[in-house]
Design goal:
about 130 residues; mainly alpha
Length: about 130
Amino acid sequence: MNDTSLSESILITVKRDIGVEDDDYSFDSEIIRDINSYLQILWMQNVGVSGFKVTNEDQTWADFLGENADHLQMAVSYICKKVHLAFDPPTNSSLYNAYKEQADELSWYLGVESDILEGYEGSDISDEDD
């Protein structure tokens, strides 16, 4: 996965990652369904905006990640890997397992980063004792 701009369309990013041309709309409903499933999983880990859904090419990574977008960019790789595994899983079991392990690791780190960000948002440095 190359560096993706957070202003890029979620749907287009995922389509490119799984080898579907931008102007090929024949799989969009299936891809969108999978994207939304994994976005919901991330939201359950406190990553992303509540109730966010991809419906077309208009929704961006920044829209989903909200104010913490810069800290949660690994969500792009997570979503792409998970959709790739669901939509077009590698036939080679070693490659499949590698993709799955990468997605699992990204999920774990996203949860950790979300917890860290939540801790920062809830802290008030000015109230520290001297």
